[in-house]
Specification:
By secondary structure, the chain is of the alpha+beta class. The chain has one domain (3-122): Nuclear Transport Factor 2, Chain: A. The chain has 4 helices and 6 strands. It has helices spanning 3-14, 18-23, 43-56, 109-123; strands spanning 25-32, 40-41, 58-66, 71-80, 83-93, 99-107. The chain has a 6-stranded mixed beta sheet. The chain starts with a helix and ends in an 11-residue tail after the last helix.
Length: 134
């Protein structure tokens, strides 16, 4: 039912194409990340998080898909620095067919910790504006 939007999302994430990822999202998107307790809500807020997320994940590849009627799971493998990770993006859709809810889960714990450390670079108030993560 949502195969075109799922394919577009998969391709955009694997290609690190932030604008194409955003094109698959509903204006009322809710993003539950693996690191933060509170969700990111609204396209404006999620848009600001997309580029850092795509930057931190390296070699992200979707390896399987769990199809459902209104929910799809995309299983991925990736790395953060030298740490390998496995995870799943759980996507839910609105009536217009756009993704309105994403939950990301990551394993093992060391990968989640590496992700949290890498993402903290983007949220640090003291980071230099002109350079990327080291």
């Amino acid at each position: 039912m949502h195969s075109k939007i799922v394919a577009a999302f998969r391709h955009a994430v694997e290609e690190r194409d932030a604008s194409s990822v955003i094109a698959t999202l509903a204006p009322d998107i809710t993003f539950n990340g693996p690191v933060t307790f509170h969700p990111f809500e609204s396209l404006t807020i999620v848009r600001a998080a997309i580029l850092p997320v795509l930057t931190v994940w390296q070699e992200l590849t979707y390896v399987d898909e769990l199809p459902g009627h209104d929910t799809v799971g995309l299983i991925f493998e990736a790395s953060v620095g030298t740490v390998s990770a496995q995870g799943i993006d759980i996507l839910r859709f609105n009536d217009a067919g756009l993704i309105n809810h994403i939950t990301v889960m990551v394993r093992p714990l060391i990968a989640l910790q590496a992700l949290a450390d890498a993402m903290s670079y983007f949220t640090s108030p003291t980071r230099p504006a002109s350079r990327g993560p080291s």
